[in-house]
Write a structure and sequence with these properties.
The protein is an alpha/beta fold. The chain is globular. The protein has 12 helices and 10 strands. β2 (50-57) and β3 form a beta hairpin. The mean pLDDT is 92.
Amino acid sequence: MVDPEVQRALRERAPVVALESAVLTHGLPRPHNLEVVQRMIAAVRHAGAIPAVVAVLGGVLHVGLGDAALAEIAGRDGAHKLSARDLAWAHATGSDGGTTVAATLAACGLAGVRVFATGGIGGVHRGWREHLDISADIEALASAPCCTVAAGGKSILDLPATLEALETRGVPVIGWRTDHFPQFHSRGHARLPAPRRLDTLEQVALLCRARWDALAQPGGVLLANPIPEEHALPQRELDDAVAQAQRDADARGIRGAALTPFLLAALERITAGRSVTANLALLEHNAALAGELARALAG
């Protein structure tokens, strides 16, 4: 179900930005979850675009939610975390849930939304040689014709392996005004270069149009937008915190879908809440850039 405002904007080729809802249901504690999505919505509108929060309510996939529905799902206990594979199950069972990057990109493909803002993508988890754990986000980025604006990959990932997986699937990874691939809570470092760099929205829009129209290539684009410098965590501190969080997860045998929420909660504890502050800042920052990009594409 597409919200009337979003439907009208798509019909008129006006700028639209999709926003995920797993951050509402699983990504951040209350009340930060609703506050940050409201800030992302405001940032998209301030940039001159229409926000479209994607979620599943009563088994129905929604592209665009009003204030009441947002508040309802943000405060609901028992909402499911839904990846792309779970959308049909949610429909069959009439379930409610927040959509991950993969599920949101699936909705973008169905509705025709070409720009999506999130925090950081999922990818190849550390220790994948012993336990193969690769996020469905990788395949979704390779299949949905949408530009995802994110602060790189989540800092808990094996980022070199994540970039290799994206390259194998032909996903253009563009550093936004940076030569380094951002690491979610940090701005990245020289050991992990961004595959390509662009410095203007006109260039990004031209790249997207060339990929989808002139070249008729399938799949999306990842625009890696570094966290604002004033909110970034020092690289060494972040590396140490992630290593400690991973050791804790290994000791408890936590894997699969439970791993990412556990690691992010552990980072919050280890950094005394500064990782959450960084998360809030980069989400709003990404939404603002996505709104500007949507306008450039619409123009």
